[in-house]
Design a protein that fits this description.
Largest interface: A-B, 53 and 53 residues
Structural class of chain A: alpha+beta
Number of helices of chain A: 7
Order of helices and strands of chain A: HEEEHEEEHHHEEEEHEHEEEEEEEEE
Oligomer: homotetramer
Number of strands of chain A: 20
Chain lengths: ~375, ~375, ~375, ~375
């Protein structure tokens, strides 16, 4: 690449694990900046190994960013889980969890509610918002480093998570690119950043409460939101550290689609323009219908019986209460009226994703659905 | 069901294996007949556990056959591998091989070339063709039983195969219903039964030589074709025992589709009508384009590098030499011209199936393709 | 069996799941009683599919109990997870978690702290302890049933857990039989039932706080201990509902050993005698050394690097700080002094279990160890 | 290392595959020589990923060879299958076959009987044995290279095998280090090199016919033995190209044991001394009992039923006809006399290895046994 470009754009690798051969497993880190003031953006993809489309999105982001002026800095970490990507079991990739112990690769990030409270109590009234932010970032970084260096060691998934979180610790905007099984594009938006629903160009938005369950987006927004709340309680005035974090689900797992990835990238660039990172003339959110739902109304439909399943409704399609959502073939009763059982929609809904295999045990998560959704 | 129907149609189960809980794993066997003379037909599905669409085809066959007069008898064995169907690894079914030892579930059927030769040598010149057929069937059955009862035991896949083969030993027509990964409908036709290409309603036909590699169709047709050849050599006149066997690939694995299954069933009924089992006025082969290829021209395209793959051509689509068949994203080079490598068609071809995952290691079978194909 | 015995001992099965063939997966339930007053005892084994030795223990328990008078009733549920037992991946059993989604089979039992509080608030001062216990059991049972019958369904592991918990809901004593990877015999004992350490005949005891993390023993003891605490707070007097629950680790997974299982059974019978279920003349705890540790001092040693590991110390063996616990072969450095790295004991300790494979990634849990242990 | 040593001993890596991240997977190659005339020796380990002890043996070989004068050259390739080593499924390594397609990692080496015949026919009567050997090696190498570079590509396991075989193509002695599941030390010896049984220090020897089934040892010895036979047929005089190849089974898989590995290495050094590679004063075969069996008498005992198994006899132990070899617990019959079924020795035998898991399906290979063995 030309020298000027190469100064804007750098690449290095970090080792996040070692395999059973004793070799390091590396993650590539692309950074791009014009040394202009602005937010720090961190975008990673494929923490779940089979969810690969985010890598294409990052590819298209890089192509666009190479030709665009940036305010702030953008850090892009494709294929951030080299362990998960490489776990084959049969033809598919079994990349959602560590095959040794079942640990979800997306549940070991750092968040310490007590630390937030203690820090908030210790802040001097006179400290500026910027200094508070900077000081607390230092504390977060050293806490993560301390966890990573404890003498008895740490589990693989958690090590991976913490090494990635260190890369994101200075970010104001964190985007974690995922995929569903067979899925629409949808996005998880924390309640306190609801306006982002109009800044992304994603048709289905799930609003989630400020609760930590281990994922990267939660680790980021819980930390800063809680800190804001604690400081507001204490000093009686509002704080806004301007940190946002989202999990974006870019369609179906086990799919690479360059054309769709280009659209996905364009949507993210539109969001970044809204946040002041890019030129708002060049990139804008799409003019489109957006549907929103609270997490409590984003429901999972399990099957009560095992068998072979036809998925009768497509992700994104409006379904009426009582409609047939799935047919289950019962191979021991092909000769009678029990041959085909049906799974019925318990209410009006929109399926957002469905299970990717035709063979299911009882208790399989067949669909995840929007219920009681609203147009945004 | 009404009594008359129930006399035509019977169902029972046989145990083909025991699981680690010590419980029997059963296979359902449906038999339907009007006690009229005609061929015996044996149809099984899902010997590979993830290849489930054949079960829907058998469901639709049963619905049609319940209302249709049959010459001969039809034996239907859906979900014939209850072990393979139930091997989950991640969300998908890892059903092509025994997860304990890698044994393909479709390679342990019985065929003994030497036994055919010995039997052919022993036949009396005066014996009628029917008596030869009947006598040799008895020999086959007892050979299979002897293998199954040897004192040191037998491997699981082979036990399963032989127990199924015993069900098929009297059949004149054997259809083994499979699926490809992401696949067109296609059929394997032994060279000596080439005319069947026009009797099925399947667009892509692969003509295979009379060679045994362990599969059910081969075990059936090799046996009888070899016997015919040996007897012809010996007595200088032609023999035709009328035994045919085929592997039918009913589209993609991990898919249940009732509407497509009804069409698949109709095609099989058309073939059965050609063979005298059903009324030729009621069921006919479709009027359609059929393409054929010799096995030597049915080629596998492997990738030389690992990475994340977009499949750029669809199964069934005509592709020109030099066309891009796949793009492979290289996550360590997203910033330069090596970011995307392409896999090119080595000659004019039609992809018949492709690998179902976007993540591949080097040496993965990306596509299987028709080359030098002809219209039939 | 003779009629008198058969009246004492009954067996039935319940379906806990359906597999992808649509067949029910059953669990056997053995009940044995002399209709004499006494505690109800619930013992299950193999909730983790590869942890099979508990089944042998239950076999030996049954042999002994057939010849012994019982006060109360004993419910024995061997092989309580017919899904997990049958998940093979390679030669071994991958039975700790659902291979579809990574869910640990032992984390979905029911416990509702708020329900305990609400119930405690609603109890009438005059109600007898027995009536409180009976009423609360009814509430637990109906809560579990409500969860099992919710309209959107429930995940497989949780369904399994709740169906088993229903069997245990009347029990005063709950024993959940597990195994470690390569492991000593050890037992998890809730802090409030510390005296049980002397009633079992198990050399290594881990004392755990009254905290619910999803397992069966916790679900049982947290519920009743919390209720006791709430009632004591409210009424200012002690309550003891006499409910105890333990997880017993009967040595190593993937091992069936009849002789050891007989000893394990004898130890459990000794405990049951202490609890008044059996004759204390006939069965007694062993006279032996017992070591105890708090959960905080039961530590996991992870490896920082991947490679091929020799486990240099045996489960149960006393190890000094600085001793070599493992050697890791580095195949890229066989020619120099980096060929073998060592993992060192960070303090004096007793390894209780170690990882069962010689090939490890970084972040693998090599050992779990007693530190700061005491003789009981 | 000191310079003189480093000249004797070199190390480099070759890439044998690429993973789904697009990264190369490398194999280390250690070569050691004093530039003195003598045989070329090729030793590899861990073509099956869970069979790791051979890596320790190579480590100890290197330690010894660093201090010993060598006639010829020794090539050591530990951990020769970086794909297989890294396939975890649960805690164990599923390394015997490609998890994508079930292909055994040890069945894709090159051998072409027709090529041997054609070459033998083309040899000029006057050519020296050395020149024939050298010319044929060139032909082998170019055949392997041609297979590796064919335009449609090649499967992963076969690519791996051929890249390794290229490293071994000049070798006079080829040792492929494996492990059994739970196993004694044993060795496969081709019939035409029977004397080697006394040169190794391995208690159990299996004599195998000159038949190719895909493994490395077979690929080597079949080639050269066949060539000798064809040339002898043609010219009426004996040829001996001095090529030997063996599969050595160094105990149980999933075990690293440095002390045992040192003994294993010493045994190999004794063999190499017999072959003129090392000083016969320094290294000698052990004085020990050796038992031999023909392949036809090396029998597999399968179980007819599934369940939970206690292995009652140890590898290496003499067993009498009728002795109990295994007990299988039947969890549905713990209350009656069917609770425990037994697997009986069908004749006098020595178990050499047994299955490593306590949970088995019907048709599992419980034991492999010497029958009709002889003392050598």
């Amino acid at each position: 690449m030309p020298e000027a470009e190469s100064r804007r754009l750098t690449k290095h690798h970090i080792a996040v694990a070692q395999n059973a051969s004793g070799r390091s497993l590396n993650v590539p880190i692309y950074k791009i900046s014009d040394k202009r003031p602005g937010p720090t953006v961190y975008i990673q993809s494929s923490i779940h190994g089979a969810e690969v489309q985010g890598n294409v999105v990052i590819y298209h982001l890089l192509q666009a960013l190479k030709k665009t002026q940036i305010n702030g800095e953008i850090i892009l970490v494709p294929n951030c889980n080299p362990v998960g990507t490489n776990i084959k079991a049969g033809e598919y990739t079994m990349g959602r969890f560590d095959p040794v112990n079942g640990t979800n690769w997306n549940r070991g990030y750092f968040y310490d509610e007590q630390q937030v409270r203690d820090f908030a109590s210790s802040v001097d009234q006179a400290t500026s918002s910027d200094d508070i932010k900077s000081e607390f970032r230092g504390l977060l970084r050293s806490s993560i480093e301390a966890k990573l260096s404890q003498p008895w060691g740490l589990g693989l998934a958690q090590q991976l998570n913490l090494k990635l979180q260190k890369l994101a610790v200075n970010a104001d905007i964190v985007l974690d690119l995922h995929n569903g099984p067979v899925s629409t594009r949808h996005v998880y938006i924390p309640e306190y950043a609801k306006q982002a629903a109009h800044q992304f160009s994603i048709p289905h938005c799930i609003f989630i409460p400020n609760v930590f369950a281990g994922a990267l987006d939660e680790a980021c927004f819980c930390t800063w939101w809680s800190l804001q709340d604690r400081l507001e309680e204490r000093f009686g005035r509002g704080f806004d550290f301007g940190v946002e974090a989202f999990t974006l689900e870019m369609g179906s797992q086990e799919v690479i689609d360059f054309a769709e990835g280009e659209k996905d990238a364009l949507g993210i660039l539109g969001y970044l323009a809204c946040k002041g990172v890019l030129d708002t003339q060049q990139f804008k959110p799409a003019n489109m219908q957006r549907l929103g739902v609270s997490l409590a109304n984003y429901k999972t439909l399990f099957t009560d019986f095992g068998g072979m399943v036809e998925y009768c409704v497509k992700p994104g399609q409006k379904v009426k209460q009582g409609d047939v959502m799935a047919r289950v073939l019962n191979i021991d009763n092909l000769d009678d009226e029990q041959a085909v059982r049906t799974v019925i929609a318990p209410c009006d809904l929109i399926p957002i994703l469905h299970f990717p295999s035709a063979s299911v045990l009882s208790g399989t998560q067949l669909y995840k659905c929007f219920t009681n959704y609203v147009e945004l």
